[in-house]
Amino acid sequence: MRADTGIRSRVRSMRSHRWFTPWLLLGPAVIWVLVFALWPFLNTVFLSFTDARPLRMPEFVGVANYDRMFGDEMFWNALTTCIIYVVVCVPLLTILPLLLALLVQKKLPGISFFRTTFYFPVIASVVVVALIWTWLFDSRGIINQTLEFLGLVDKPMAFLVDRWLLLGCAILLTVWKGLGYYMVVYLAALGNVGKELHEAAMLDGAGAFRRFLSVTIPSVRGAMLLIAVLIAVSAMRVFAELDVLSKSTGGPGGYDMSLVMLIRQVGSGLNGNIGYASAISVALFLLTLIPLAAIAFMNREKKAKAPA
Question: With a threshold of 0.85, does the pTM exceed it?
Fold first, then answer.
């Protein structure tokens, strides 16, 4: 009887709430999204069809900014950089953190120290880390001095001047800094893999590599897809790594620029073309939707093949 009375009192309390009570709780979050997410996005789309510039009223120019973008060599160079970033970073940061998670998953003395060490680059500022890497790869840095000391090169290598070497250094920095973060994601996924699956595979005579392919990877497939999408989206929006590394030596012209760097260069300053920068921003947004569409398609195919 007391339980029934308590339930009825809670039901009456819920019914006594005003209709707007939930909106009072959701209001701050909704206002935040509308002001700082939805409105800037819609305004960017609008400005992409104008010739907006600072201190001047924008005029509607239709798709002129998009026509200019498709014929702009700087845009295609920046897009090429981003695509290379995605193609290289996605497989590396999808597989290497999984292997690292398998290593630190074992309960061994001192393993917590190694987990913390691997995760430390994640909490470090990307700008600070990039500055350290400029000192390492500078013409008079430790890397070049070591190569010269070992007699592997006759003169310092232009790591931060050559387009491809600079891009390789930036990718290496991104991979090194992201290993620990995605390792933690995999550790959480591996914790849900039943030990009986590995034991059954061992009874069937499967070795470590075979169990990795047949048990581990299928069990963490969802986490792998999520990580691949996160990496692809982040790689398309790469900025700090290339910006800091290229600024240290001037960089190889405009070829090292990513799309975000191009947006900043085009739209900044009193003479910045905000309309054209907005058009590139819209194009970047549409490009980041491709990985999301890919994972949605893969999940759809997986459900379609699943037995009823």
Answer: no
